[in-house]
């Protein structure tokens, strides 16, 4: 390579690095503004709803001077803008106050329950991706056939059926009638006090401890709720895979590959799917974010001790510190995953590197 070529390549690399750094800065700025908006919305919702945090702590029958003292300790006697800045300062320090139900700091409770939600959403996403991607590819290849129609109907049902109905149906059929899986909960009570979690991800912890008996028990509990979530993820992923593949199969390089005599299998799985992989990865990441955010009903139906159940129980008991803290964590994770998907797209798509 000549000196001029090396200088040109260096300028291109420098330009791409500069553009990427600018994109990262822009994404971080957007994320910060979005997070600030999330904090403002959750704060004002907490002040608008007819629940007095002071009364939730001391009870309805507490003397007026006790209620007034608690309100003063919580800063509820301050002007609204001062309350918001105190709230913002506390959130940025990871402080959401104490939970009325557990008397623990809300952040401590969230750290305890979030791994259960993360594990459930991760397994659901894996189920949706490993089944949804091949279905979407086959639907695109067999466009207009009965197979294509079946895949589209599966996706339509996934978009239309309420998650609570599907969850209850799964419990009645696979747990109550057939006995193939365990019921609500996360682990059998026999192992609950003998199994020692390490990371909070029970399946991973059982593998790390080489305890396959506990692993099978945990898997029997998680597979049904994960499959329910995975079905909704499958509906979204298969639909988007079909759309991406149809677009790729119409490109000129596919015609050229067929003219060269390449096998149809290699054209579809090694060329078309490879080019569709970058936007498809973004879809899978966003699907994972949606499962993290939308697992509340699933966790409630299956008594899954995750963040969704924690927020639901807190809301039913007027524990607003826990409700707002859990909402902020879910929103922050959703924002972070969205920004990550955008960055991955920019990093992996060669067309963005040339800009």
Automatic annotation (TrEMBL):
CDD domains: TM_PBP2. Gene3D superfamilies: MetI-like. It is a multi-pass membrane protein. Residues 114-341 form the ABC transmembrane type-1 domain. Keywords: Cell membrane, Membrane, Transmembrane, Transmembrane helix, Transport. Its main location: membrane. It is found in: Cell membrane. The keyword Cell membrane applies. Pfam families: BPD_transp_1, BPD_transp_1_N. The chain crosses the membrane at residues 20-45, 120-141, 153-176, 218-237, 276-302, 322-345. InterPro entries: BPD_transp_1_N, MetI-like, MetI-like_sf. Belongs to the binding-protein-dependent transport system permease family. This is Peptide/nickel transport system permease protein. It comes from Phyllobacterium ifriqiyense.
């Amino acid at each position: 390579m000549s000196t001029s070529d090396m200088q040109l390549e260096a300028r291109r690399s420098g330009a791409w690095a500069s553009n990427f750094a600018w994109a990262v800065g822009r994404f971080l700025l957007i994320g910060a503004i979005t997070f600030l908006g999330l904090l403002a919305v959750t704060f004002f919702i907490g002040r608008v709803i007819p629940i007095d945090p002071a009364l939730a702590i001391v009870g309805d029958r507490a003397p007026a001077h006790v209620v007034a003292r608690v309100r003063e300790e919580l800063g509820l006697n301050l002007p609204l803008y001062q309350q918001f800045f105190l709230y913002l300062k506390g959130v940025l320090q990871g402080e959401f106050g104490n939970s009325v139900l557990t008397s623990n700091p809300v952040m401590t409770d969230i750290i305890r329950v979030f791994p259960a939600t993360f594990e459930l959403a991760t397994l659901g996403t894996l189920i949706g991706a490993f089944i949804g991607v091949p279905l979407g590819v086959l639907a695109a290849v067999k466009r207009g056939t009965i197979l294509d129609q079946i895949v589209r109907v599966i996706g339509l049902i996934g978009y239309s059926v309420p998650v609570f109905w599907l969850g209850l149906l799964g419990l009645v059929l696979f747990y109550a009638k057939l006995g193939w899986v365990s019921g609500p909960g996360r682990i059998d009570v026999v192992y609950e006090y003998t199994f020692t979690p390490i990371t909070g991800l029970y399946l991973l912890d059982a593998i790390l401890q080489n305890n396959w008996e506990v692993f099978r028990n945990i898997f029997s509990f998680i597979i049904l709720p994960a499959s329910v979530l995975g079905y909704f993820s499958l509906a979204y992923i298969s639909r988007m895979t079909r759309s991406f593949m149809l677009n790729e199969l119409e490109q000129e390089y596919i015609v050229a590959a067929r003219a060269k005599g390449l096998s149809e299998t290699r054209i579809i799985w090694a060329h078309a799917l490879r080019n569709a992989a970058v936007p498809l990865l973004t879809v899978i990441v966003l699907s994972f974010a949606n499962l993290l955010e939308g697992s509340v009903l699933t966790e409630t139906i299956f008594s899954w001790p995750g963040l969704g159940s924690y927020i639901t129980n807190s809301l039913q008991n007027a524990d607003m510190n826990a409700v707002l803290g859990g909402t902020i964590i879910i929103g922050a994770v959703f924002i972070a995953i969205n920004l990550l998907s955008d960055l991955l797209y920019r990093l992996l798509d060669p067309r963005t590197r040339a800009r």
